[in-house]
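Justification of computing resources. Each target in the renewal requires a structure prediction run like the one illustrated here; the chain below, 348 residues long, is used simply to show the kind of job we budget for.
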Amino acid sequence: MHVPDGFINAPTSAVTGVVAAGAIAVSLRGARRELDERTAPLAGLVAAFIFAVQMLNFPVAAGTSGHLLGGALAAILVGPFTGVLCVSVVLLMQGILFADGGLTALGVNITDMAIVTTVVAYAVFRGLVKVLPRTRRSVTIASFAAALLSVPAAAVAFTIVYAVGGTTDVSIGKVATAMIGVHVLIGLGEAAITALTVGAVIAVRPDLVYGARGLTQKLKLRVNGELVDAPDAAPVPLAARSHRKVWITGLVTSLVLAGFVSFYASANPDGLEKVAADHGIDRKTEKHASSDSPLADYGVKDITDARLSGGLAGVIGVGVTVVAGSGVFWAVRRRRTADASPTAVENV
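Resulting structure tokens:
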């Protein structure tokens, strides 16, 4: 659902840019509360994994494909504020290095794919885990539903933005029907990927899933005829539970998906591209500012072998994204540590 340059006019793009910048600023502050010894080392990996899986377009209808947006997955694994930052890092890397998603439309894409999906998904997720049985399976079920609803929500958001600032005169009703219809189907793929990933992580390291915190019910003991909370067991020190195995497994998986599996992804246009072509939204598409990038269109310039070119571009993308994301989240985590230091407290 990457919006290219030329779909949305300059004033509307500027407004969404301000919205995106404000949301990122709020998320940077909110992420300080979410990132700790468990989530901080993994947040950059989550961004890299989303980048890799977004390269795997899957068929959803005749001549149409879809790909992961990632807002639901990021929000559930590392928290909603950190989730917004994860997807924003991915979109920035894609726009600058791979000419995927317009640079003037970066605000539109962040608003649509990072903010809307994350907010909607996490709201649905939290609502469901409150009413479902407090089990790991419930977290997986809630993840599926949250991801499913987040994708058509993003389609609705794009339709609203296009109704306000679209550069072509088309029937908004037809655009809305087409966008929502195809993205409901794409949402099923998003839901499956999100639920499988969350389920896999929660099966081996539930302590690393932000959305699963606080779901364990207190053990009750009967004392003198009254039920009381049993004392908590001594927690395992976080430092003693290494994240290295999970981190390495996640990174290797991301590299394999982007470097090898992506070659077999569907070549059909995604939902937005198909709707844009069918309804004339793309008539004023502009050339991407990074179209001459050595990695434009997810291939390495001057490498003629398509498999090698695309695979190498995917590997580079995963590497750059994990480094960029880890740098951002390390800085946010360091700021939190600095704010909590005794010196900072004394200076308040």
